Every structure is written in C-alpha cells, then in structure tokens.
C-alpha cells in the first residue's frame, strides 16, 4: 500500500451537478471513481462537518444518477456517521469503509476548534470548519489535500496569514479543485501504486 495521505472534502467537491462547468462536473465524477478504489487515503471529518454533509449532500445528489461510486457509498454511510457523532461526543472515531477500503476518521470537536481561522478570508462556517480540519490533521501526514469546487474558497484564503499563524501545519496543506491536474495526477499515481501492491 502507498503512503497514507490526508484528505478533507468540501461539500462542493462531491456534487457533480449544479452551477459548475462541465469540466468541473466531470472532474468530480472522476474523483468519485478514483477515491472509491483508493485505500491509501484517510478522509477526515468533524462532528460538525458530518452534520453539514447530512444536511446538504443527500438533497444535492438525490436527482443525480448514476452517482459516482464514492458518493453513492458515502450516502449509505452518512446515517451511520451521524449516529457515531451523536453517541460518542468528545471521542476520536475511526470508521473503515467496507466496500472501497478508504479509512474515515471523525476528529473530536475540541481538536478542530483549537485552530483559529476567523480572519484568513473565509466567511462561511462550513469553509472555516473544513480548513480547521485540514490544519488539525496536518501533523499526521506529509500531504493534506483540501478539495473544494468553490471559487471563493480557492481564491480568498490568505495563505501568508495562515502560514504565519500555523506554519508547520499550513505548509503541508494544498487547497485544490477537483479538476486540478496535479492533484488528479497524484491520485492516479496512488491508484497505480495501490494496484501493484
């Protein structure tokens, strides 16, 4: 198995429809296919992000058929993830995906809330939460990808301010769009490495 890397997925990176370019929609579908078979990644959530997912993603994806395999499996897992977060407040949880082999980690709330990102250019609480999760997991990985299709997220984060405040964590985080060619090449390489091991 290739070396594990961390991944945080903004809701926008999982919905291959809506007001997005056809290129972005296709990239999200490809991401959903690649992630499903990629067992060298850990995808991180917080209890708050799970609630956001549960509120937004089923509604956004209900009319999209066929769903990419990762998104279809995530929809099946969301009720279980919601139950885990409601029963085990304050605990670090680990749920292993049964079909694709991806590891899901739900971080405890206090660990995520340690990071202050209120003045780095993000307005929406969901976006701040995704960035806090990326910072919270950076010490565990050589690479952390924060994937988003939201242009304001990609363009508005003040990287210099973030690096001044959280240098060691911030330098490991790459904020990327699903159609970022370097990110997709990285995933393709990881898929090939996994297939050969």
Write the layout of secondary structure elements.
Layout: E1 5-9, H1 22-36, E2 41-45, H2 47-61, H3 69-87, E3 93-96, E4 103-106, H4 109-113, H5 125-137, E5 144-147, H6 151-156, H7 159-165, H8 167-170, E6 173-176, H9 181-195
Parallel strand pairs: 1-2, 1-5, 2-4, 5-6
Antiparallel strand pairs: 3-4
CATH class: Alpha Beta
**What is the CATH third-level topology name?**
Rossmann fold
- End-to-end gap: 6 Å
How big is the Rg? Answer: 16 Å
Number of domains: 1
Estimated share of beta-strand residues = 5-15%
The number of helices is 9
Q: Which outline best applies? A: globular
**Name given to the CATH architecture:** 3-Layer(aba) Sandwich
**Regions with little confidence, pLDDT below 50 for 5+ residues:** none
Count of distinct strands: 6
Structural class: alpha/beta
Helix-strand string: EHEHHEEHHEHHHEH
The largest sheet, given as strand count, sense and whether it forms a barrel, is: 6 strands, mixed
Structure description:
Helix content is 50%, strand content 13%. Helix 1 (22-36) links the parallel strand 1 and strand 2 (41-45). The model has no long low-confidence stretch (mean pLDDT 86). The protein has helices at 22-36, 47-61, 69-87, 109-113, 125-137, 151-156, 159-165, 167-170, 181-195, and strands at 5-9, 41-45, 93-96, 103-106, 144-147, 173-176. The chain has a single domain (5-187), classed as Rossmann fold (3-Layer(aba) Sandwich). It is built from 9 helices and 6 strands; from the N terminus they run E-H-E-H-H-E-E-H-H-E-H-H-H-E-H. It is α/β, with parallel strands linked by helices and 197 residues long. Helix 1 (22-36) crosses helix 3 (69-87) and helix 2 (47-61) packs antiparallel against helix 3 (69-87). A 6-stranded mixed sheet has the order 3-4-2-1-5-6, with helices on both faces.
């Amino acid at each position: 198995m290739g070396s594990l890397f961390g991944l945080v997925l903004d809701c926008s990176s999982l919905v291959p429809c809506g007001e997005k370019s056809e290129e972005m929609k296709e990239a999200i579908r490809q991401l959903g296919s690649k992630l499903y078979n990629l067992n060298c990644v850990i995808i991180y959530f917080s209890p708050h992000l799970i609630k956001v997912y549960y509120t937004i993603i089923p509604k956004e994806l209900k009319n999209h058929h066929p769903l990419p395999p990762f998104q279809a499996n995530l929809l099946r897992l969301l009720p279980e993830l919601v139950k885990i977060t409601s029963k085990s407040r304050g605990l670090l949880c680990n749920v292993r995906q049964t079909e694709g082999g991806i590891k899901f980690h739900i971080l405890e709330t206090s660990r995520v809330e340690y990071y202050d990102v209120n003045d780095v250019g993000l307005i929406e609480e969901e976006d701040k939460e995704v960035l806090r999760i990326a910072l919270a997991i950076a010490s565990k990985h050589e690479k952390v990808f924060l994937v988003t299709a939201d242009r304001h997220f990609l363009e508005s984060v003040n990287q210099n301010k973030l690096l001044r405040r959280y240098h060691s964590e911030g330098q490991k985080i790459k904020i990327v769009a699903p159609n970022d060619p370097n990110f997709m090449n990285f995933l393709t390489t990881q898929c090939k490495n996994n297939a050969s091991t």
